[in-house]
TrEMBL record:
<keyword id="KW-1003">Cell membrane</keyword>
<feature type="transmembrane region" description="Helical">
    <location>
        <begin position="329"/>
        <end position="347"/>
    </location>
</feature>
<feature type="transmembrane region" description="Helical">
    <location>
        <begin position="435"/>
        <end position="455"/>
    </location>
</feature>
<keyword id="KW-1133">Transmembrane helix</keyword>
<feature type="domain" description="Major facilitator superfamily (MFS) profile">
    <location>
        <begin position="14"/>
        <end position="459"/>
    </location>
</feature>
<feature type="transmembrane region" description="Helical">
    <location>
        <begin position="359"/>
        <end position="383"/>
    </location>
</feature>
<dbReference type="Pfam" id="PF07690">
    <property type="entry name" value="MFS_1"/>
</dbReference>
<protein>
    <submittedName>
        <fullName>MFS transporter</fullName>
    </submittedName>
</protein>
<dbReference type="GO" id="GO:0046677">
    <property type="term" value="P:response to antibiotic"/>
</dbReference>
<keyword id="KW-0812">Transmembrane</keyword>
<feature type="region of interest" description="Disordered">
    <location>
        <begin position="461"/>
        <end position="494"/>
    </location>
</feature>
<feature type="transmembrane region" description="Helical">
    <location>
        <begin position="200"/>
        <end position="220"/>
    </location>
</feature>
<dbReference type="InterPro" id="IPR020846">
    <property type="entry name" value="MFS_dom"/>
</dbReference>
<dbReference type="InterPro" id="IPR004638">
    <property type="entry name" value="EmrB-like"/>
</dbReference>
<feature type="transmembrane region" description="Helical">
    <location>
        <begin position="80"/>
        <end position="99"/>
    </location>
</feature>
<dbReference type="GO" id="GO:0005886">
    <property type="term" value="C:plasma membrane"/>
</dbReference>
<keyword id="KW-0813">Transport</keyword>
Length: 494
């Protein structure tokens, strides 16, 4: 039985460790988009390399995150958490020192693998360490601090890019790791799951990551219409089919197919695909639009995006409470529509755009849409499966959101005819952005229709989320199992 009390010195050290660890991954997910124009100019590369700078990280993180949680259960949550922190920092150092775009992309893939070890550990350590009477408050403090970190991220990223340079967006992780790892080793007790004796589904994890990588490559490089693109597309689909077959036949699969026997769980994951594909494309392109077309600095662009995160941080808990009273269907229908309206309002953002008149209204509407849908989305995922599989269901949903975002980043430039040099030519990028926003809005409308026709009110007494405050705009929060040490990945911050 975990027995560390939150008010104790050790309890405060444990909370600090988990906040520092989750902050590394959160900062990376919120600041890199702001740095993209500077990375492209400094390394003399085209748009495809900027897409890979985002997606190389997401491919390995999405493909390996469930495996990372299982490794922590078997070999010790603190051990794998510290390994993830060190790995993430080493890859971040390589990113910061990268002399070419190719080295940066490879380092980003390594960084994602480190994130897959680091990300599941934060909440798992809290659940495995704190006394049950203090666990809820500890989770609340952790998610609140994580939300603050998410809010600070774009501002800090812009400050670093305009000041010492884009490389410090990555190098910042090194001092955080030098602080986090020793504290974890000294003050966080080790824990593991004595029941975790099944074989690891390494083949499933590799096939999932390979499928994502090949499909992403085919979408990003499709403009060349080469044989390599066709081969990658066919191989990516084949890898995806192989992944499904392996998961169906393995005795201990990473993603048990029977979890999709729940019609509600399947439907909510389809809604997640739609919603987070639109979000991924939006935040990737908007950070570029504000700098390339509007002409703002990285600091101004990063700060401009704060309203969505701040609204999430302030109102997500209340949205979750509303969903418990009225059921998730209305919120999962209205939320995507509000986000779609916000994206259409972004069509007013062009050369000479005014922040209070053009940018802020769109981001406030979109932020309110995100507030409306994210908490009920997580609650519905947890409520649609048995309580014992809540961690698995949350992990699958989180990985689904990451995969949707990386596919959107790969596909939107292709769908809008965005060339390799578009981010250097304001009028070309503005035209492509004007085509992308209606596409993203349309995907959100599809998600809203699916939610309206398929989502039903959960049964009374079903599992509710522990993380009530959510500040990340990139992915839905992860949840572990309540009442015992988490055996599935925990949240990536709030």
């Amino acid at each position: 039985m975990p027995d560390v009390r939150l008010a104790s010195t050790q309890g405060r050290w444990v909370l600090l460790t988990t906040v520092l660890g989750s902050s590394m991954a959160l900062l990376d997910s919120t600041v890199v988009n702001v740095a993209l124009p500077h990375i492209g100019r400094d390394l003399g590369t085209g748009l495809a390399a900027l897409q890979w700078t985002v997606n190389a990280y997401m491919v390995t993180l999405a493909g390996l995150i469930l495996l990372g949680g299982a490794l922590g259960d078997r070999f010790g949550r603190r051990r794998i958490f510290v390994l993830g922190v060190v790995w993430f920092a080493a890859a971040s150092l390589l990113c910061g020192l990268a002399p070419t775009a190719e080295v940066l992309i490879a380092a980003r893939a390594l960084q994602g693998a480190g994130g897959a070890l680091l990300t599941p550990g934060s909440l798992a350590l809290i659940q495995a360490t704190f006394h049950p009477d203090d666990r809820g408050r500890a989770v609340g403090l952790w998610s609140g601090f994580g939300g603050v970190g998410a809010a600070v991220g774009p501002f800090l990223g812009g400050f670093l890019v305009d000041g010492p340079g884009w490389r410090w967006v990555f190098l910042l992780n090194v001092p955080l790791a030098l602080l986090c790892a020793p504290i974890a080793l000294r003050h966080v007790p080790e824990s593991s799951d004595e029941r975790a004796h099944a074989r690891f589904d390494v083949l499933g994890a590799v096939l999932g990551a390979v499928a994502l990588a090949l499909i992403t490559f085919a979408l990003i490089e499709a403009r060349s219409a080469s044989w390599a693109v066709g081969i990658a597309a066919v191989a990516g689909v084949a890898a995806a089919v192989a992944f499904v077959m392996v998961e169906r036949r393995r005795p201990d699969p990473m993603v048990p197919p029977d979890v999709f026997a729940s019609r509600q769980f399947t439907a909510v994951n389809v809604v997640t695909l739609c919603v987070y594909a639109a979000f991924g494309g939006f935040f990737f392109l908007t950070a570029l639009q504000l700098q390339v077309v509007v002409g703002w600095s990285a600091l101004a662009a990063g700060t401009a995006l704060l309203p969505t995160t701040v609204l999430m941080l302030l109102l997500s808990a209340r949205s979750g409470e509303l969903g418990e009273r009225i059921g998730p269907r209305l919120q999962l229908t209205v939320g995507p529509l509000l986000c779609a309206l916000g994206m259409l309002l972004m069509l007013r953002v062009g050369p000479g755009a005014s922040y209070p008149a053009d940018v802020l209204p769109a981001l406030v509407v979109m932020g309110m849409g995100m507030v409306t849908l994210v908490a009920p989305l997580t609650a519905t995922v947890l409520a649609s499966v048995d309580t014992a599989r809540a961690g698995l269901a949350s992990g699958v949903n989180n990985a689904t959101a990451r995969a949707a975002g990386l596919v959107a980043v790969a596909a939107l430039p292709l769908l809008t005819g965005m060339g390799q040099d578009a981010y250097r030519t304001p009028h070309l990028f503005d035209a492509a952005f004007g085509s992308a926003m209606p596409i993203c809005a349309g995907v959100l409308v599809v998600g809203s229709l699916i939610a309206f026709t398929t989502v039903r009110r959960p049964a009374p007494g079903c599992r509710r989320p522990e993380c009530r405050t959510h500040g990340s705009v990139a992915v839905p929060p992860l949840e572990g199992e309540r009442g015992r040490p988490a055996s599935e990945p925990g949240p990536a911050g709030g």
